[in-house]
Amino acid sequence: MGQDRLQPAPGAARNRSRIAILHLAMVGLFLLDLALPRNIPLLPYYFLVVVLSASIATPRQMVPLIGQAYGLAIASGLYWRFLPSIDYLTRLLALSGVAAVALWLSAQRCWETALRRRSEQILNLTLDNAAAGEVLTDASGRLVRVNAAFCAMLGRDAETLLQLSWPEITHPDDLAQEQPLVEEVLANRRDSYRLRKRYRRGDGGTIWVDLSVACARGPDGRLEFLIGQGIDITTQMTAQNALVRSEEMLDRTLEHCSVGLGLCAPGTGVILQANPELCAELDLTPAELVGRSLAQVVGALEQVSAEAADVLTPMDQAALESLLLGEIDGYRVRVRLLRAGVLRGWGDLRLSNLRDASGAAEHVLLELDDITDLVAQTEYLQAAAAAGVVGIWDWDVPANVLSWDPVMYQLYGRDPVDFGGAYEAWADAVHPEDRAYAEGEIQAALRGEREYAPRFRVIWPDGSVHHLQAVSHTTYDREGQPLRMLGVNYDVTELVQTQERLQLEQERLSTTLDALMDPHLMLGPVCDDAGSVVDLLIRRANPAAAAYNHMAQEAFVGARLRQFWPDGGNGLLDRYLEVLSGGQPLVLDSFPFHHPQQGSLRYLDIRAVKVGEELSITWRDVSERIAMEQALHQRAATDSLTALLNREEVLTQMKQLLAGDQRRGGELAVLFCDLDHFKDVNDRYGHQAGDAVLQAMADRIRSCVRTSDLAARIGGDELMVVLPGVQDLAHAVTIAEKARQLASDPVPTPAGDVHISLSVGVALACPDESLDELIARADAAMYAAKQQGRNQVVAIGCGSPQAGTSMSRPW
Q1: Looking at beta carbons, which pairs linking 645-648 to residues 24 or more positions away fall under 8 Å?
Q2: Which of 127, 168, 190, 530 has the smallest count of CB within 10 Å of its CB?
Q3: How many angstroms separate the CA atoms of 429 and 443, rounded?
């Protein structure tokens, strides 16, 4: 097969038309022979037509052409009177050899064509009936042949697939890993490769496939076509990915595990890793524990055990040595825990070998559980990948002959000499609890209801149980009777065990998260057509999260954040996306957030951590704490009578303003205000009236300043106004004059209207001037106003504190 698609063989009608043309050509040659002069013989050209026909005609179709060539040659010889010359007959006899060679070439071509068609038929049967997905592509990557299993895996029909190339059906994220392998095949640096990749289905979904690719090359080494075989491993990969995410979450909680855990090297027993709980249980620091041998640790515990030999199981040193050598799987003993030289409780010590697929010990797991008040068990999860070994079987249904390849005997733990080679022999190997189900699936496949693809257990002769996955294809005769089942089996024992451990771990995590009082969410990415993450999907929510958003849990899970935050949630959604892309945890304390479901501004402590491809979010509503802190700060910063800033607060803010204005080169003015004859008001009307006057003066001063200005009570009847960003001294005086005029209006009190006036000193901050110097100049200006008759505004420049100039007339 070359780079082009396979073309159908020429039809019989087309061949007949070509042969008819050759007959006509030969007649034309004869007529031309008669028309040309006698000295231009055309005898060889009659048999040239015969030679040409060898490339398109069968030997049977060539016989009339040969007869016609002989007839026309003889007729030409008679016409030109070449016959019965010996020379002409010799030439005619020589051309008979040409005709014989043409017949041989035609027969050889027909034989090769038949052989090629038979090979193509065998290939077509193999591809079409294979249980695994099979696909052929040309060197450009265009699909030229797919079988039914491949179409079923991708959820597309063959006509659609044959319009595509392998990059178009491959998941974009997997193109980079396969492209170099394809380029090496095209460059003749390799003839095959195998990888796990994702394909895009017709319904928009994605499947994982274990793909094996080989190539066929011509004699010159040029690539003719690629053939790929794939098995759907989506379930396996989904389980593995989920297990990885689960282990990541488990690693994050390992440090807080209540059970002491440690890993030791096999053989030597050197402690490689220990969690904080184990260090605490053994009363050792991590530096003291890691690097010690298991014998040293157990020896210390054994000494403790010896003190309570009547209630404790003695340490078995022989068992410990057998454990380290991998001869036994586990050892368990009860011990007493020691801290600071004092017996403090009971411990359950468990040692077990962690083995790989071959049975060799990889690590020794040490578990030390404080069972004085609580007995706990912790499992250590080990990632399991499904085996890639596939066994092929073939069952002749009418003859009840079952054939296995060598891998099948490995999968069933059987020896070929002990296998009966029939349906009953297979059924005997199936687990009794699964036999009825597996046989029912076979009967359904034989009836044509569905393909045979069950998952079942088999029992090995040694009693061990293994899980197998079957996939097959059934062929039928014209009456619909089953003839043959061709299928594959592969071991999924590790996958099943992984799924069971994963389910148990997920149940534990789910129970823990549901018990949290703080809201918790697991968010997954939502991507656009370009693959960019544009939103987050709520994949899991604990009851506290659903209750906080006033939604039922089943309605809350599956929603997207933009449904609740169309505007991005005050930038919170973007921060979550940064954590998802960069992996850096997010910590936000007292984050102001207008929560749509709560209907008000709330303050939240937020924590966001990336876990695998998801985001773990927890938050706590601290709005009441923030409100209390703000109220306490407001109370500490203001005067209780006038609600103006107190002396300490205004001086603190003035330092900040003064420093800022000096950096910006702006103007800052201070108004030092004093109520004239305020003591007389207290003496004549009472302190209640005096308080009313102070409150009224505070309200009037607030009414004539900006929100950015500061107004404070710094003494009994002394008020201060700070004006940042004023234009000049005259601008500050204008504001002071307005305050002075408002102060002269009568103040209603319980004792009657009170008339009072205000003396104001104004000072503009000078370069490199301290806060005390600025206030001293404003105070000096106020005293100048007092001395000049009160009820007026006096401004003082950047000179002597005693120099002042009246800026208004007396009232």
Answers
A1: 645/710, 645/711, 645/712, 645/713, 646/712, 646/713, 646/714, 647/712, 647/713, 647/714, 647/715
A2: 530
A3: 18
